[in-house]
Amino acid sequence: MAVEDMVRIVTEQLKNIAHTEVHVGKPMQLGDVYVVPVSKITMGFGAGGFGSDAEARQGRGTGGGVSVEPVAFLVARQDRVELLHVNTPGSPAGKLIELLPDVIEQVALYVQQHRDQ
Predict the structure, then answer these.
(1) Which of 5, 35, 98, 105 has the most CB within a 10 Å radius?
(2) Residue 73 burial (10 A CB sphere; 0-12, 13-18, 19+)
(3) Does 17 reside within a domain?
(4) Strands 22-24 and 33-50, how do they pair?
(5) Is residue 29 included in any domain, yes or no?
(6) pLDDT tens-digit series, residues 70-98
(7) Domain tally, the chain
Protein backbone atom coordinates (compact mmCIF):
# COMPACT_ATOMS: atom_id res chain seq x y z
CA MET A 1 0.00 0.00 0.00
CA ALA A 2 1.36 3.43 -0.92
CA VAL A 3 2.02 6.01 1.79
CA GLU A 4 -0.51 8.33 0.16
CA ASP A 5 -3.21 5.67 0.52
CA MET A 6 -2.32 5.05 4.18
CA VAL A 7 -2.47 8.79 4.91
CA ARG A 8 -5.86 9.09 3.19
CA ILE A 9 -7.33 6.09 5.02
CA VAL A 10 -6.08 7.11 8.48
CA THR A 11 -7.22 10.72 7.95
CA GLU A 12 -10.71 9.53 6.97
CA GLN A 13 -10.91 7.30 10.06
CA LEU A 14 -9.81 10.11 12.40
CA LYS A 15 -12.43 12.42 10.86
CA ASN A 16 -15.08 9.77 11.61
CA ILE A 17 -13.97 9.64 15.26
CA ALA A 18 -13.84 13.40 15.93
CA HIS A 19 -16.39 15.40 13.94
CA THR A 20 -15.89 18.78 15.63
CA GLU A 21 -13.33 20.77 17.58
CA VAL A 22 -15.69 21.39 20.53
CA HIS A 23 -17.94 18.79 22.10
CA VAL A 24 -20.89 19.51 24.39
CA GLY A 25 -21.50 16.48 26.62
CA LYS A 26 -24.64 14.93 27.98
CA PRO A 27 -26.40 16.90 30.74
CA MET A 28 -25.99 15.44 34.25
CA GLN A 29 -28.55 16.16 36.95
CA LEU A 30 -27.21 16.71 40.47
CA GLY A 31 -30.23 17.38 42.64
CA ASP A 32 -31.94 20.43 41.13
CA VAL A 33 -28.79 21.48 39.24
CA TYR A 34 -27.92 20.45 35.69
CA VAL A 35 -24.25 20.31 34.64
CA VAL A 36 -23.17 20.04 30.99
CA PRO A 37 -19.46 19.44 30.24
CA VAL A 38 -17.86 21.32 27.32
CA SER A 39 -14.64 19.80 25.93
CA LYS A 40 -12.04 20.72 23.32
CA ILE A 41 -11.11 18.01 20.83
CA THR A 42 -7.63 18.00 19.26
CA MET A 43 -6.48 15.71 16.47
CA GLY A 44 -2.91 14.96 15.49
CA PHE A 45 -1.54 12.94 12.61
CA GLY A 46 1.79 12.03 11.05
CA ALA A 47 3.02 9.85 8.21
CA GLY A 48 6.29 9.06 6.49
CA GLY A 49 8.14 6.60 4.36
CA PHE A 50 11.29 5.92 2.35
CA GLY A 51 12.30 3.69 -0.53
CA SER A 52 10.20 2.45 -3.43
CA ASP A 53 8.44 -0.78 -4.34
CA ALA A 54 11.39 -1.78 -6.55
CA GLU A 55 13.95 -1.41 -3.71
CA ALA A 56 14.59 -4.14 -1.16
CA ARG A 57 14.89 -1.64 1.72
CA GLN A 58 11.84 0.46 2.37
CA GLY A 59 9.75 1.63 5.26
CA ARG A 60 6.43 3.31 5.89
CA GLY A 61 4.49 4.41 8.89
CA THR A 62 1.51 6.43 10.03
CA GLY A 63 0.13 7.46 13.37
CA GLY A 64 -2.60 9.59 14.78
CA GLY A 65 -4.40 10.45 17.94
CA VAL A 66 -7.32 12.31 19.46
CA SER A 67 -7.25 14.28 22.71
CA VAL A 68 -10.31 15.43 24.68
CA GLU A 69 -9.77 18.22 27.23
CA PRO A 70 -12.52 19.68 29.46
CA VAL A 71 -12.65 23.47 29.04
CA ALA A 72 -15.87 24.51 30.79
CA PHE A 73 -19.07 23.42 32.48
CA LEU A 74 -22.49 24.86 31.74
CA VAL A 75 -24.37 24.94 35.06
CA ALA A 76 -28.15 25.53 35.16
CA ARG A 77 -30.04 25.94 38.42
CA GLN A 78 -33.58 27.26 38.72
CA ASP A 79 -33.66 30.46 36.60
CA ARG A 80 -29.87 30.98 36.39
CA VAL A 81 -27.32 29.61 33.90
CA GLU A 82 -23.53 30.01 34.28
CA LEU A 83 -20.55 28.98 32.18
CA LEU A 84 -17.68 27.96 34.49
CA HIS A 85 -14.33 27.95 32.66
CA VAL A 86 -11.81 25.33 33.77
CA ASN A 87 -8.69 27.34 32.81
CA THR A 88 -9.59 30.50 34.73
CA PRO A 89 -7.28 30.77 37.78
CA GLY A 90 -9.20 29.93 40.95
CA SER A 91 -12.32 28.86 39.05
CA PRO A 92 -14.62 26.40 40.82
CA ALA A 93 -14.69 24.19 37.71
CA GLY A 94 -10.88 24.02 37.62
CA LYS A 95 -10.79 23.05 41.28
CA LEU A 96 -13.48 20.44 40.61
CA ILE A 97 -11.35 18.88 37.85
CA GLU A 98 -8.34 18.78 40.20
CA LEU A 99 -10.38 17.07 42.94
CA LEU A 100 -12.23 14.66 40.65
CA PRO A 101 -9.75 11.72 40.85
CA ASP A 102 -9.82 11.80 44.67
CA VAL A 103 -13.61 12.07 44.73
CA ILE A 104 -14.00 9.11 42.36
CA GLU A 105 -11.64 7.03 44.50
CA GLN A 106 -13.56 7.89 47.69
CA VAL A 107 -16.93 7.12 46.09
CA ALA A 108 -15.66 3.77 44.77
CA LEU A 109 -14.31 2.89 48.23
CA TYR A 110 -17.63 3.88 49.86
CA VAL A 111 -19.64 1.78 47.38
CA GLN A 112 -17.37 -1.22 47.85
CA GLN A 113 -17.58 -1.02 51.67
CA HIS A 114 -21.38 -0.77 51.62
CA ARG A 115 -21.77 -3.51 49.03
CA ASP A 116 -19.98 -5.97 51.35
CA GLN A 117 -22.34 -5.20 54.27
Answers:
(1) 35
(2) buried
(3) yes
(4) antiparallel
(5) yes
(6) 888 888 888 888 888 877 666 666 666 66
(7) 1
